[in-house]
Amino acid sequence: GIQVEQSPPDLILQEGANSTLRCNFSDSVNNLQWFHQNPWGQLINLFYIPSGTKQNGRLSATTVATERYSLLYISSSQTTDSGVYFCAALYSGSARQLTFGSGTQLTVLP
Amino acid sequence: SQTIHQWPATLVQPVGSPLSLECTVEGTSNPNLYWYRQAAGRGLQLLFYSVGIGQISSEVPQNLSASRPQDRQFILSSKKLLLSDSGFYLCAWSALAGVSEQYFGPGTRLTVT
User: A35: Cβ–Cβ under 8 A, 6 or more apart, which residues?
Assistant: First the structure.
């Protein structure tokens, strides 16, 4: 099955700094999503981005499907950005299963 | 707009007891429904998915089962819980199987003692 790898596994930033999170996937995908898991465990949808670039406020994401990677950019980070960021991909050959990466634990210090 | 509910939010159950977790979706018809488990650590694993009433597919052999008695209701069950069933259980829905965005419920945190 598809492999999804995220880097870095842990990231500590000072408030106001920028960061880039990376997601590599091993095969063609129909669906690529980025989530933020808050301290209560809720998975919050950030982007649905099987290809191209999208922006939402301080966050933006780019997926280069031909090179099998996606990037999540966080600018001017805030303490509320802390949590685990997941990317998840749905392999073109799979009917249903979103395969999750192991996540990036982001800590933003005041 | 669509919303997804799960209950209970937290549950502590002894080994060998039964389990029933419920998930309901509002604001959409004929959703695709999913059960995921997140064990200690980070990764989420798909357990079951359903494309319609009574249609359940299992991704991983385990001590759990799922049912879909109504269009927007998805239930996760066990007859006898194991310690290894502890974890965070998340229900999700999507409009179109295999393509469209998945949305997750708030989750149920299960501790088996």
Answer: A43, A44, A45, A46, A85, A86, A87, A88, B104
